[in-house]
Design goal:
Number of strands: 0
Number of helices: 5
Strand content: under 5%
Number of domains: 1
Structural class: mainly alpha
Largest sheet: none
Shape: rod-shaped
Order of helices and strands: HHHHH
Oligomer: single chain
Radius of gyration: 39 Å
Length: about 230
């Protein structure tokens, strides 16, 4: 006579498999939750860095535009200085004191000082004396100061451009992490539909490895942006 009582060994094996399946579901749910949060975080950082890129490139354009304006203003100012200097030298050679004083009072202060300094050292009989005010060291220093300001603006523009380019690179990397974590979500979603236990385990294992590797890279190598 056969016993109708269930086999204890089969029950235990079924319970073990059931518990393993439950654990896999828990692991899969945790991986899916982490991947979802990571996608949201990467999208948030992507938007922040994209904003930084936009502002830095706009800042670079502003500094380059200002540098170009300084260059144009410097060229125009030099041409005006040439005309004033030629008139001033002509007045000195003609010994026209009224004209000399009129020019000294009418030009901008820094150029007036250069003209006065040249007038003090000029001697028509001294061949070593500066021939005209524009070869005076003071005038060259004035030009160098303007050139330094132009170079400073260009350097600021280059610096802002490099920062914008770096922000663009970081934005691209966050986009890549978004794709990678989305693949983890995809694998986790497929795992919930797998009927075979070995396929279910493989999908959960692979998605977990990818998720952990991406998290490590994200924490160690990706810079954070703030508002």
């Amino acid at each position: 006579m056969y016993s109708m009582e269930p086999d204890d060994g089969n029950l235990k094996l079924s319970d073990i498999r059931g518990r393993r399946g439950d654990r896999l579901e828990v692991y899969n749910t945790v991986i899916l939750a982490i991947a979802t949060l990571a996608v949201a975080w990467c999208a948030y950082q992507n938007n922040l860095w994209n904003g930084i890129q936009t502002f830095k490139l706009a800042e670079s354009n502003k500094f380059n535009r200002l540098a170009q304006q300084k260059t144009l203003q410097g060229g125009q100012s030099f041409q005006i200085d040439e005309a004033i200097t030629a008139t001033f030298v002509d007045a000195v050679l003609q010994k026209n004191r009224d004209r000399i004083q009129f020019i000294l009072k009418g030009v901008r202060p820094e150029l007036s000082k250069v003209l006065q300094d040249w007038l003090q050292v000029y001697n028509e009989h001294d061949t070593t004396a500066p021939l005209h005010p524009m070869v005076m060291p003071e005038y060259k220093q004035m030009l160098d100061a303007k050139n330094l300001e132009t170079e400073r603006l260009r350097d600021e523009g280059d610096k802002a451009y490099k920062e914008g380019d770096r922000a663009n690179s970081i934005t691209d990397r966050y986009s890549l992490f978004t794709v990678l974590f989305s693949s983890v979500m995809f694998l986790s979603a497929i795992a919930t539909k797998a009927t075979r236990r070995d396929i279910h385990f493989t999908l959960v294992f692979v998605s977990g490895i990818i998720c952990i590797a991406n998290l490590v890279l994200l924490v160690l190598y990706m810079p954070l942006a703030s508002k």
